[in-house]
Design a protein that fits this description.
The chain has about 160 residues and is of the alpha+beta class. It has helices spanning about 20-35, 45-60, 115-130, 145-150, and strands at about 5, 10-15, 65-70, 75-85, 95-105, 135. It is globular.
Amino acid sequence: MGVENFKGSLEFRVTFAGPYDLETLVRHRLEMWREINTDRKLDNDCSVEASRDWIARNLFQGKLIGFVARTVDEVVAGSGCLWIREEQPRPFTRRLEAPYLMSMYTEPVYRRLGIAEAIVRCAISWCKSHGYDIIYLHSSPAGRRLYDKLGFKQTNEMRLHIHS
């Protein structure tokens, strides 16, 4: 998949992210966190450099696959990434790595037009073509309906925040 074109009320295409998309991926990731955490004040400024370094390093190493949706006028409408992360051996998986869908973000003016769904479908297609049999993600409440629609199932992960 080099380019996927989508039509509806808006014509756009989803392409793989390259080095020239780094700032978009960083901005979208931080905006995603800001919107998800409306109850907490986040200091995104301290995360910019760390996020930029992490994204750049993982893109370069092929451990992060970025997808960027653009309108026919080349305006960025949204993006998302697959992080190919190491997994522990389990009886029901064939590989010791698994894609994790992350940093999904659609620019507010382009929401509800199919941008996020197109990005997720491209990510699923990429995973299938590369022999992966599972995709993980953590969903915000806003994204849950889309992931349910595309066949993702909620799991019973638990978390403990340790405060010093």
